[in-house]
Amino acid sequence: MLAELAAANAAFQVIKQAVSNGRDIASVGNQIAKFVDGKETLQKKVSNKKNSPFYKGQDFEEFMALESIKEKEAELKQIILYVGRPGLWNDWQRFQAEARKARIEAEKERKRKKQELLETIVLSAAIIIGIGIFGIVIYIGLKTRGML
Fold it and tell me: Is the four-CA dihedral 60, 66, 72, 74 of positive or negative sign?
């Protein structure tokens, strides 16, 4: 959790410094992506932790990490609104939503394929074991009739 927060904070500092030095938003696109990735990873970890049966409530550290990210995101919004073209923030929000949906769909597809592979392996193993048992039964039957 702290690693994700540190990565997001470092990316944000680079964004802030670059913009204050007169660079445009496009030049720090990679850092914005790192910031967003750190934010989403942190939120996912906290969410997964909350859904755990062993979770005993939100830790203050988690709360403060998420709060820090929210503050930095609000600052990033202000930077984009002041430095970027009109409507850039709204376009960015729409782009993020679409990308998030695509990542969720890709994750579902990955899980579905993994499940299919597991089912195929189990079915193949069952068929091989069944053929083996059938072969043993035939062998024993032939052996007891004296045909072997």
Answer: negative
Instruction: Record the tokens describing residue 96, joined without a space.
Output: 């993020």
State the average pLDDT for the chain: 88
Please name the residue ranges forming H helices in 21-59: 29-51
CB of 12 closer than 8 Å to CB of 76: yes
Predicted TM-score (pTM) of the model is 0.67
- The sign of the torsion formed by the CA atoms of 101, 107, 110, 112 equals negative
Residues whose CB is less than 8 angstroms from the CB of residue 69 and which lie 6 or more positions away in sequence, other chains included: 5, 8, 38, 39, 42, 43
Distance CA 32, CA 24 (A): 12
Six token digits for residue 91: 């376009």
Cβ-contact 41, 8 below 8 angstroms: no
Q: Please state, in angstroms and as integers, the Cα–Cα distance from residue 42 to each residue in 3, 63, 118, following that order.
A: 9, 11, 30
